[in-house]
Amino acid sequence: MKKGNSSLFFTDSESAESYSLSNQFAENMEFRLVKDRNTATPYDFYYATAMAVKDNLVRKWLRTQNTYNENDTKRVYYLSMEFLIGRLLKNMLTNLSYDEKLAEILERDGLKLEDIVEAEEDMGLGNGGLGRLAACFLDSMATLKLPAFGYGIRYEYGIFKQLIDNGYQVEQPDHWLATGNPWETLRREINYRIKYFGKVISHKDDKGNLWFDWVDTEDVIAMGYDIPVPGYNTDNVNNLRLWAARSTDEFSFQEFNRGNYLQAVENKSTDENISKVLYPNDSYAQGKILRLKQEYFFVSASLQDIIRKYKINHSSMADFAEKTAIQLNDTHPVIAIPELMRILLDEEKLDWDEAWKITTETFAYTNHTVVPEALEEWSVNILELLLPRHLDIIYEINHRFLKYVKQYYTADDEIVSEISLIKEGKEKFVRMAYLAIVGSHHVNGVAALHTEILKNRIFKHFHKIFPGKFVNVTNGITPRRWLRTANPKLAELITNKIGSSWAKNLSDLRKLEDFTNDKKFLKDWQDIKLENKKKLKDYIESEHNIKVNINSIFDIQIKRFHEYKRQLLNVLHVIDLYIQIRENPDKEFTPRTVIFGGKAAPAYLQAKMVIKLINNVADVINNDPQVGDKLKIVFLKNYSVSLAELLIPAADLSEQISTAGFEASGTGNMKFALNGALTIGTMDGANVEMAEEIGEENMFIFGLLSDEVVKLKESGYDPKEYYDANPRLQRVVSIKISV
Ligand code: 26W
Predict the structure, then answer these.
(1) Is 260 exposed, middle or buried (0-12, 13-18, 19+ CB in 10 A)?
(2) Which of the residues 179, 328, 364, 433 has the least number of beta carbons within 10 Å of its own beta carbon?
(3) 684 lines ligand 1 (CB under 6 A)
(4) What is the average pLDDT score of the chain?
């Protein structure tokens, strides 16, 4: 590498950016990967490209972080157990406007950017909606030039890989890190000690004040890995810091003294399990101790890091809340509330009221689900063992909260025990959502209807106790990934008509209304859709050996499998269509390809049986010569962010059919609409707001409203009544055909 001066560092004027991408690619291939033309694999091409792109980001990344430090700006920290990022290369290229430049360079060597992009593993560090939302927010905050930082866990294994065996879902580990991650940088100096177990001791100082210490703990080290997050069309590059667990270098003296050296080392290796694997549940809080260890692990490391940064410019904690906003992505990081209290009380020596004021002014909590089994509750026994000081603090928070409730709201015992942070019973539990509400200045739902349900149903007492605390922040998606990158042809068509501002200001898409009668524009649009459908058809043929008709309606439901999302309803409808075709072989029928994709939590048997049912129905329909081209049903294995990028641009119909009141928002619904698919859906989550924007007449809306669902349940819902009264339903449920 040639440099203009003799310093070891680049100067501002000769920044690393001035090195051409092609030189960097060649250097990476030779010096970092030790490969040449004869030995380079497709993965090497990807790796060398990714490193070259990252190198080009470094200067902007450093500059952005320096600017935040110098200006002492207020920062926002997004604490999330999940970041479902998918692939990064194309996204980075889009945001840096390098896509065409790089494609040209690669072409000169006979390489195709499209192939290189395919070699990247998905970064599947999330389950579904909540994790993908976190990833979209990172892109959005960087683009808006907000001083925002993501904090999460560097899981060695992401969401499991889904195989289908005889129609059944089979899970396989996703060891995505095995081949290395070119986007991350280990920050050797950024590591923190995380404490577990031990006991709390108290002592009085000279003035008679009581102090608490948490001692005899078993410690683990959190190591920070950074990933750059470039904004679109700006020089702003934010940071995502993911923590990996490493054992401390200390050995258990007991084991050591017993001469059991190997056992002592072995015990250490279990510490590293903390960041080993993402829990694959998205709707069931299991209450396992390893999960609580994970939650505290990343919360403690992040808070230590946040406070370290704050202290660079401040000598007391007084202005902490003014300079720091911490957003809690669901209850998973809510242990941060007692953790900040512990730091302020025991380490910073503040009194309770000061500490509580800072804490509540710092945190805000986003709720993402109303499904009761998904609301986290931690056993008091587990907390007492793992985080004894935190349990004490939670009890104190509850004590003060209930005192306030009795004074200003109600002394009714039943209501008081209903809203207590502690659920009493044979085993006691801490209700993490209630702790989050009490310890935050704002609580938000993720769509208008969802926020109303929080206020009027599941958190109604809290809404009355803290009026104004509950606010709505409807979810969104990044149009950079979900239109510009995933559907470049459509993006280009739109840009040619209305300019490129839509990529930052999505409401500019309204300008397209001027072209609703422009025949050429509509034809071009249809051609692009058809091209996208061809691409998907090829994928389905090569991966699943099913031939589909690109002139059929591509009717797509992709999301986690869950009873409330009603994939079952969709497949029952497919069976009904099948019966119609068999009974009226000569009747005109609009051909349809019904596509499903999604994973079921490994222990969620009911959801797994729906996957099996879909595959069995597919076997029958796809092999029935009477059906031919009219109807096909496809279950795509291993649904992922990358697969979504292939599917969504090819969709004609988007299935958003949850039981009203259950889907907090949905974000897939928005991605489909942005790519020109029509929506069939219920008045649930953000579908409601989409209907307001798009016009109900432009959506296929059906089903009960959320209040009607509640009333029906209260009056005694009996599915058998519907079955007995509806012969068509009876046939669908009872049909026995095999081919
Ligand atoms: C503790 C187990 C667990 C893990 C994850 C429980 C619950 C979750 C998430 C909160 C589930 C989730 O992803 N919820 C989805 O969040 C999206 C983003 O706000 C919404 O669009 C979806 O409607 C909601 O289901």
Answers:
(1) middle
(2) 179
(3) no
(4) 95
